[in-house]
Structures are given as C-alpha cells and as structure tokens.
Write a structure and sequence with these properties.
The complex is a heterotrimer of chains A (347), B (553) and C (182).
Chain A: H1 14-36, H2 39-62, H3 66-70, H4 74-85, H5 92-108, H6 120-131, H7 133-136, H8 152-161, H9 176-186, H10 190-195, H11 207-223, H12 230-249, H13 257-262, H14 266-273, H15 284-304, H16 311-328
Helix pairs in contact in A: 1-4, 1-11, 2-4, 2-5, 4-5, 4-6, 5-6, 6-16, 11-14, 12-14, 12-15, 15-16
Chain B: H1 19-22, E1 27-28, E2 34-38, E3 48-49, E4 56-57, E5 62-65, E6 74-75, E7 80-89, E8 97-105, H2 124-133, H3 146-149, E9 159-164, H4 173-180, H5 182-196, E10 200-206, H6 210-223, E11 228-232, H7 241-249, E12 264-268, H8 269-281, E13 287-294, E14 300-305, H9 310-316, E15 327-329, E16 336-337, E17 351-354, H10 374-378, H11 385-393, H12 397-402, H13 413-417, H14 424-487, H15 490-512, H16 523-539
Parallel strand pairs in B: 1-14, 9-10, 9-12, 10-11, 13-17
Antiparallel strand pairs in B: 2-8, 3-5, 4-7, 5-6, 7-8, 13-14, 15-16, 15-17
Chain C: H1 2-25, H2 33-40, H3 54-63, H4 75-86, E1 103-107, H5 117-121, E2 127-128, E3 136-137, E4 157-161
Antiparallel strand pairs in C: 1-4, 2-3
Helix pairs in contact in C: 2-3
C-alpha cells in the first residue's frame, strides 16, 4: 500500500511489549523461587511447553502463518501468567489442562490474538479451581517452614509422576488467605492468626516478598509506558479501600488491607492480569471503572465467597463488562462540545 | 506579553532529520527545457486550459483559468511553446494521470508585464480578485484557493494565525524561507491582515527552528508591526490547522467546521511569502521552495518553478544515491509514495524525500490489534483509532463514523506508534472515501428518482389533458348532431363532416405511428436517415446497414 | 398457592405496563416497506429487472412477487442490503444479470437527426433537445440505463464507461499482509 506514514516508531512492536512484560515478571519469579523452592521453574517450563505446542497446532489448523504469530510473544506471556497463577508442584496434567483452556478455548476459539473477550490465563485458572479444587488449593509451603523442602529433581518427579513418594502434607501449607478465612470463621481472634510464623510481616511469609517482586516489576512496566497508571491504581485502590473499611468496622473478623494487598494474587492481578489490553477497558475513565470493579469483586469473593482468592473470577466478571464500560466512557473528541454519553450517541 | 502555547492532546516525537537539508541556503533551479503544468493543483475544480497546442506563451501568462468558485488559475513557468495539453503523470497517491499543459521552454524566459498592486490603497475585494487570477493557493499542503480564505465574509475574522510550525520531519522549506526571507513574509502577512481586517496576528514556529524565530522577530520589529512570533514546543502535529489554532489561542475548531467559524484564519508562511510576491511584484504563483532530502547527494532547498519534473529536481540535488528505495512527496508522516518521477512539482509539493532501506524500512507485517491504546494516546484529535479501525476493517462504515471518523486529520500519529504496525490511516482514508461515495450515490439516486417521478407525472398529465380535449370535442360533435336533428343546419352538418374526417385521420395516424421503427417514418426522415447512413459508412462507423445491434428486432 | 398466583400476576402486570409504556414512549415511525426497498434500489430505472422502473420492482419485492437478486446496477452490495432489510439470505444475481461498470450514454452529435425518440425513452429526462435539433445527454443526470439505445434510428448513441480520474479516485481497502497461508 501506498499510504502514509512512511516511517514508524523505532523498536516498537507487539513483540517488544510482550518481552517487556516478561522481563517485568522476573523479580516476582525470582522471589518465588527463593522462598518456595524450584517448583516454579518446573511449572514455568511445563506451561511454556504446552502453550507453545498448542499455539503451533492451532495456528496450523487455522491456517495462519507461524512466524509472525509465534514471535509476537503473546503465548509466552499467557503461559507465564498461567504458571504463576497456578500452585507449583501440582501434577503435570493440571498445567496441560490449564494451557488447553487458556490457548485453545479462551484465545483461539475467540479468534486468536487481540480478539478474546476473557483473559486466557484467568479462564484456565477458573476452570481448574472449579474442576480440581484439591490440587488448586495445595500451595507449597515456604522452603524455610516446610517439613520437607522439595529439591529440583524431586520437584520434577513430583510434577511428572503426578504423585510423589512424599505426602503433600510434608511440603504444602494453607495460604494466609485460606487460614484467615477458616480461622476467622472458627472464631480465632486476629491477634492469634497474625502471630503464626506463616503469617510473615504483613501478608504471608514468602508471599509478601513475591508480591513485592510483582510490584517492582509492575512499576517498571509503568515506567516503560507499557501500562498506564489507571488500572493498577484503581484496582489496588479499590482493594485497599474496601478491605480498609471492613477492617475499621470490625478488626477482629476482617483482615487488614495490607494483608489483602500482599497476599494471594493481588499484585500479579493488578499489574499483569487486569492490565491485559485485549480484555481490559481502553478509555481512561473506563479503565478506572473496570479496575475498581475488579478490585471490589476480589474483596467480595475473598471475604464472603467460597474461594480463598478471587482474582480470576473478579477479573473475568470485569472483562464481561468491558464493552459496556467502553461504550459509556468514550472521551470527548477534540472540537466536540461534550463527550458522548453512550452508544446511542454514536450515530 | 508573550502567550504560552496550550497543549493539544496526543502528539508524537519522531526523529527530526531537519539538519540534512536546512544547512544550506535556498538554491535556484536552473531553467529547464520542458515544464509540465497540471491544471488541477488545488482543492476544488480543476482550472480550464486557455491555451492551445502550438501557442507561444510567456512566463506568468495564464495557461489555465479558474473554473467555478473553489478554483484558481495556473500559469506558464517560463516562456516557450505549448506542445501538449493532455493527461500526464502528476504527483498524486493514485498514480493516475491528469490534464497538464506541457511547455517547451525557448530559453529566453521572457515574462508578461507584471503589474504590482498598491495593496494599501486597494479595496480588499479587488485584492482578492487579483489573488484569484494570480493562482494563489495554500502552500502548506492543503492548496485551498487563497482568495477564498482572504475573505472575511460570512464570518468576520479577529485573529490571523501564520503557520510556520513545519512539524513534519525532514521538511525544511519553510524553515529556510523564514530564515532568508522574513521581511517579505512579514509584508505578506500585512497584506493578509489588510484583506481580512483582523486585529491580532500570531505567528507560530516550532522551537526547533530558533534561527527562523529570530529572523521573523527581527523582521516584525523592523516593519514596526505588532505581530507576535510564538515558539511552539516541537511536537508533531503542531502544524495541523486545528492544532496550531488551539496551541496559540486555546480555541477548539468545532467538529465539521473550519477555524473561520470561530473567527480565526490560518495561513502558511509560504503562502504569505507568495502573496507578497504576487502583490508587490504582480507575479503569479509560478515557483515555490521545495525541500529535496533523504538519500540524495546534496540535500537542500530549491526555488523551483511549478511544473518542474521531479526527475530534474532530484538531479539538481545531485541525484539519488545508490540503494535508493523510492520517493515520498511530502513528509514521512502524511506524504505519499511517488509513482512516476516524470510527475511535476505542483503548488502542493513542499518536499521530496528519497528513501533508503535503513531510514525507511519497509512496513513490517501487520499483526492483529491488541487494543493497547497507544494510538488513542497519540491521537491529536482525541479519537479512539483502534475502534475506528475495528469497524473500518469490517467495512461497517456507519459505526466507524459513529466514532467520529471525520474528525480524523490523517496525521498518521496513530499508525506511527502502533505496535502491531497496522496501516491505520489507510483504513480511515478508505472508510472516508467509501462513505463519500455512498453519499454521492445516494444523492444521485434521489435525484434520478425525483426526475423519474416527475416524468411519469408529466406523461400522465399529458394523457389526461389529451383525454379531456377529446371528450370536449366529442361533446361538441354531439351538440352539433343534436342541432342537426332539431333543425338540419347545413353549417353544422359541414362542421360535423370535417370533425369526423379529422377524427378518422387522427385514428389512422395513431395506428400508423409505431415508434422505435424506422420503416414507417415519413419520407423526409427516411431520406435523412439514408443520408446519415451514407455518412456513417463513409466514416467507417457502420459497415453494413443491417448492423442494428441496438435496434428493436 | 393463592399468594404465588397473586405475586406472579402482579409481576406480569407491572412488566406488561412497563413494556406497553416503552412501546408508546419509544415508538419509531417506520417508512412503509416499499419506500425502504426503493431507497436501496439504485434508481437507474433501467428495467433490467423486468419491471418498468425501480418503484414497480420495489412494490413487487414488497408483495413477494419478485426476487431480490434481479437488479444488476445495484450489484451484490444492493442484494446484500435488500437481504438485510427483508431478513432473508443474500444470493447471487439472477441468471444472465451481470453488473456492468458504471457508464453513461453519449450522443454522437454529428449523426443525431433530432428525432426525439431517445428523449421519450429516457426515464429521467436526462436528454436535452427538440425535434430536428441536435440532442445532448446531461452527463450528471444519466443513470446509464441504456433505454435510449434501442429507439435511436441512426445508432448515434453509445455507452461510455465512466473512468476513474484523480478527482473521483478512492482510497483502496488496505492490503492485508497478515494473510492466511491456506
């Protein structure tokens, strides 16, 4: 084609964006490996391998060229986010099923890159937690606290055989969100829960450091202008405000906001999952509404729901609302007297 | 008091590449043996050729006359002979040919007698008419006929903005012009102000041209004028009409309108210079400054006569270097690929860039849109280009229009930043031309429907009138017959006979007239047909009289 | 039991009321179907559909007496829009009905004898002239219906395809590089 522009911004590509996202995940992954042992490498490896193979297969089946779509890096981001969202040391087929739902169902059946309505990693997570709750709630304990820390080869063995020679009780423990939920329901006072060694400083021993890693990576991502401030700020703000209000009202039953920010997938969700541009709202005001809705739903599910963590369901529910939110938050166009009020205005 | 420029939304910072061509003074192109002057160099109706092949013309003599309101003339760039008035390659994204007047120079370069205007005494309306005759059109790229823009009616103009932003990378023709010919520009602006009768004059120049700003300020001071020269932050597209209006005044041009709707008129500095020449020397627009840059031996700016083949212009810049990969007319963000080097420089051509693969790599394969929103953040119109793209690609032009497609100024900032390398502007241009086409088709259809309905109505009315006449006649006959019965009037009897005969004749005529048939025509017409058939045969149009493919069998 | 019935009835009443109110409040005045069909037809009045003009064809479609694929000047796009309007599947143009590039009629003024037969045939009054005077076609008004060709006794009318020029040129649909390999 003949048209302009004839020069493009240098070094700007989908591939570059995806690589920046992957790099930004590294502090969190490193913290994870440090505190929870080598299991994370196994799940990253498996998820990457499964997702990549499925991507190749689907691209071939759908008749798309392999090179541009494999080098765009999107499948790697999906695979890594899936690996980070799932518990480590789960049987290999958990990762395989996750990859199938993420890549085949959530991505390609919706039309492939850029067309999916739901975040692929979160679709996979949601399916797995509903389908296989036992495996999905067995999070490995921090190496320092585990009865039997799992070494690198043991990790492979555990994952690939599906059932190791050691009992899961020896290397797993309940997460801090889980503990809070069960203990608080049993009437254990907050002070006692907090004094447990697994609680750590603010949000679970080890987990809080992983969260800090994600926060660091996320801030770098913002500095690199891959994500704008809107979604992380609104998401974390909504979580902090909602839990803060609950905690102020009843400090005995409701965990402090810092715990909610540091525990579970809050930071990963705020910076890496809710910000997925394909499934997130795209207008500035829309992003704020979308992320605040997701953050609020996280707290609702954590506090009153049956699942210990609510990131996946909260983000999927917010994804559903995206087209509607975008339609009603169209910014004012230069030279127009007022902004649009909705899709009915667009004729 | 100096104004602080406002901040329009979006914008990008591409590499400047100004240094390549702005270091040397404007050079004058040597006289060439042949010039090709297109008749459609401006927005609006093409000029009508007013010279014939073989005619001798002088420099500055009109070769095309303005046709209609939105039009302006074209002039011979040198003296010589008109050798052709025909379709030739022109600088246009389509690569289609368009009507041009081709002039072989006689080398003498004799000019018609130019008549300088005493513009201060001249009535603005008379001034505008002269400007129209002298072929002035906006030299910033839009080439809108200047005489229309110099008219303060129907909206009075309170502010004149002179656009020296030159925000596109690579282009430096305005930069050099402002540095070297600031006094002339300032006088041209004074003429504009005289025609418009406006109070305020603001000159905006991007701050990457400090020499130009200094030169303009000095010229304004020397002329004792109260024009304000304002440095604009360097950010593409600050030179867009709506953008520079907002930067300097804080006023947004209403959607679908022009800046004149809010009392502001915008002219390019090049136009101000051309106006000064037109007015003080009486010289029509037959040359302009063109930047030649990129992969050429000696990049620079050239005072180029309108009609100079781009080939010759490139040769003047030392020619394209080895490894050149095509030419761009205009800037890298809004220009278009040149299809034919024989195309001439027109009033719209401000820059020719010779590409090479390292500075202008081919566009990478486009990937699907990931809705990252980079385009929306870069858009100076505050649009959502990815939504417009979504619907344009699906050919759902109505929805694309719903996202304010027509507020897009096609600056290319969105496509520049797109990580998926989607040619967004191409989609928007396609969508716009499809929408215009559909609107044109619809109005044509409406007109055809109306005319058809009227024809049907007319035919029916004629039929009815005929029937009424007939009925009247019949009544008269009856009355006459009654009269006969009552008192055998010989006169009535005679009338009746005549009427009867006439009716018979009419009946017979009706039977014999079978249209679409050449056999039953009256002998006079038959004769004419034979004569024409003979002529046709002579002309070799119809070989046999039986060749009646279009006739009714 | 009674309570349940009452609740259901109450809900039904309320919803019915809301729906009824909405139907009145948001009623859209609709054009009659024939007008809508006629608006899609290209108004060439060429009669290729077998009806004497676009309106009669529109009426026939509205009555279900004619198929939607009988209009070559409207092309595939026209068929598709008619199908959308009527809620039926689009189909290819009928047998022997080929869309042609847009053309207008041109009278060879050296040959015209001024017989006025073409003027009578032109459905949109796009031919100017009088008896024994040379006729001219008003290019802007010509729909390209070709109805003036058969009556001309001297074959002095021919069709000229409208060529694209710089003024009428349209930006093409961008070449999509991300093609399927299959």
């Amino acid at each position: 084609m003949n048209g302009s522009p004839h020069s493009l911004a240098i070094g700007n590509s989908v591939n570059a964006i995806m690589i920046k996202v992957l790099l930004a995940l590294i502090p969190g992954i490193a913290a994870h490996a440090w505190f929870f042992g080598p299991g994370i490498w196994v799940s990253l490896l498996l998820c990457t391998a499964f997702a990549f193979m499925l991507e190749v297969l689907l691209l071939l089946l759908r008749g798309f060229p392999l090179k541009p779509f494999l080098t765009d890096g999107s499948v790697l981001v999906t695979a890594w986010l899936l690996a980070l969202a799932l518990p480590t040391l789960a049987p290999w087929w958990i990762y395989a099923v996750g990859a199938i739902f993420a890549v085949v169902i959530a991505k390609h059946l919706y039309g492939g890159l850029g067309q999916n309505l739901f975040n692929p990693a979160m679709v996979a997570y949601a399916v797995l937690i509903v389908g296989f709750p036992t495996y999905m709630t067995q999070w490995p304990a921090p190496v320092a606290l585990a009865l039997h820390p799992v070494g690198p080869w043991e990790a492979f063995d555990l994952v690939l055989s599906g059932k190791g020679s050691i009992s899961p009780d020896a290397y797993t423990s309940a997460t801090v969100l889980d503990t809070w939920k069960t203990q608080a329901r049993l009437g254990v006072p907050a002070s006692e829960i907090v004094s447990h060694p697994a609680f750590g400083h603010v949000g679970g021993f080890g987990h809080e450091w992983v969260a800090l890693g994600y926060l660091t990576g996320g801030l770098l991502l913002m500095a690199a202008r891959v994500v704008t401030w809107h979604i992380p700020v609104a998401f974390l703000g909504a979580v902090a405000l909602t839990t803060g209000a609950l905690h102020l009202a009843d400090p005995v039953h409701y965990a402090p906001p810092l715990l909610h920010l540091a525990a579970g997938g809050t930071m990963l969700g705020a910076f890496f999952i809710a910000t997925d541009p394909v499934t997130a709202a795209s207008t500035p005001r829309g992003k704020l509404i979308y992320a605040a809705l997701a953050g609020f739903l996280v707290v609702v599910i954590r506090v009153w729901g049956n699942f210990p963590d609510g990131i996946a369901f909260a983000i999927l529910l917010a994804n559903v609302c995206v087209p509607f939110i975008d339609d009603y938050t169209q910014p004012r166009v230069f030279g127009h007297a007022r902004r649009k009020t909705g899709p009915g205005d667009q004729t | 008091m100096t104004r602080r420029p406002r901040h329009f939304p979006g914008g990008i910072h591409p590499d400047q590449h100004k240094a390549e061509s702005n270091a040397t003074p404007i050079a004058t192109m040597p006289l060439l043996p042949r010039y090709v002057v297109p008749l459609r160099q401006h927005i609006g109706t093409a000029a009508r050729a007013c010279v014939e092949v073989g005619e001798r013309v002088l420099r500055g003599q009109p070769v095309g006359l303005a046709e209609g309101y939105v039009s302006t003339g074209a002039h011979a760039p040198t003296s010589g002979t008109v050798v052709a008035v025909e379709a030739r390659a022109v600088p246009h994204p389509s690569g289609l040919f368009d009507t041009c007047v081709v002039i072989d120079a006689d080398g003498e370069d004799r000019a018609v007698e130019f008549q300088p205007l005493a513009w201060r005494e001249l009535d603005p309306s008379a001034l505008r008419n002269r400007v129209r005759e002298l072929g002035l059109a906006g030299l910033g790229g839009a080439v809108f006929p200047s005489y229309i823009k110099l008219n303060p009616a129907p909206q009075p103009i309170h502010t004149l903005i002179v656009n020296g932003a030159e925000c596109e990378p690579w282009i430096t023709c305005d930069d050099r012009l402002m540095r070297e010919r600031a006094p002339e520009i300032v006088e041209g602006i004074a003429v504009m102000r005289h025609a418009l009768g406006c109070a305020t004059v603001l000159i905006g120049v991007e701050d990457n041209k400090p020499e130009a700003i200094t030169a303009l300020r000095a010229a304004v001071a020397a002329a004792g004028a109260d024009f304000e020269v304002i440095a604009l932050p360097t950010r593409y597209p600050s030179g867009g009409g709506k953008q520079i209006t907002y930067l300097l005044t804080g006023v947004e041009t209403p959607t679908g309108g022009r800046s004149t709707d809010v009392g502001i008129q915008v002219f390019n500095v090049g136009t101000a210079y051309a106006l000064q020449r037109a007015v003080t020397r009486g010289e029509p627009l037959i040359s302009r400054v063109v930047t030649v840059t990129g992969h050429v031996a000696r990049p620079g700016n050239f005072e180029t006569r309108i009609g100079t083949p781009i080939n010759d212009l490139l040769a003047a810049a030392g020619g394209a270097l080895a490894g050149a990969s095509g030419e761009i007319v205009g800037g890298p963000l809004m220009g278009f690929a040149l299809m034919d080097l024989a195309a001439p420089v027109t009033k719209a051509v401000n820059c020719v860039i010779v590409k090479n693969p390292s500075q202008f790599p081919p566009r990478p394969v486009d990937l699907p849109c990931i809705r990252c929103g980079a385009c929306a953040r870069a858009c100076p119109a505050g649009l959502q280009p990815f939504e417009m793209y979504w619907y344009s690609r699906a050919r759902d032009f109505g929805r694309a229009q719903g996202y304010d497609l027509f507020d897009c100024i096609e600056c290319g900032a969105c496509a520049y930043v797109c990580p998926s390398h989607i040619p967004l502007v191409d989609y928007f241009r396609h969508a716009k031309s499809e929408i215009w086409e559909r609107e044109r088709e619809k109005s044509n259809a409406d007109q055809a429907r109306q005319r058809h309905e009227f024809k049907t109505f007319r035919l029916e009315r004629e039929k009815r009138e005929k029937a009424e006449k007939f009925a009247k006649a019949a009544e008269q006959t009856k009355a006459a017959a009654n009269a006969v019965e009552t008192g055998a009037d010989p006169e009535a009897e005679r009338k009746k006979a005549i009427l009867h005969a006439a009716l018979e004749r009419a009946k017979k005529a009706k039977e014999t007239v079978t249209p679409k048939n050449t056999d039953n025509l009256p002998p006079a017409i038959q004769g004419e047909i034979a004569e024409i058939e003979a002529r046709r045969r002579a002309a070799g149009l119809a070989d046999t009289p039986e060749k009646t493919g279009n006739d009714t069998p | 039991m009674l309570e349940a019935i009452l609740v259901m009835a109450g809900i039904a009443l309320v919803l019915g009321g809301v729906l009824g109110w909405a139907a009145i409040r948001y009623r859209v005045e609709e054009d009659p179907l024939v007008e809508k069909i006629d608006a899609i037809l290209p108004q060439t009045q060429c009669g290729q559909c077998g009806f004497p003009g676009c309106k009669p064809y529109a009426e026939a479609i509205a009555k279900g007496e004619a198929d939607i694929n009988q209009c070559p000047p409207g092309g595939e796009d026209g068929v598709r829009r008619l199908a959308e309007l009527l809620g039926v599947e689009p189909k290819p143009l009928g047998e022997g009905l080929e869309p042609k590039p847009r053309a207008i009629a041109v009278i060879d003024e050296n040959l015209c004898i001024g017989c006025t037969l073409c003027i009578q045939a032109c459905p949109v009054d796009a031919i100017m002239g009088a008896a024994k005077q040379m006729h001219t076609i008003i290019a802007d008004q010509c729909t390209g219906c070709e109805l003036c060709l058969p009556p001309c006794p001297v074959d002095c009318i021919h069709m000229e395809v409208v060529k694209e020029d710089v003024a009428s040129w349209k930006w093409r649909y961008p070449v999509h590089m991300m093609k399927r390999v299959a």
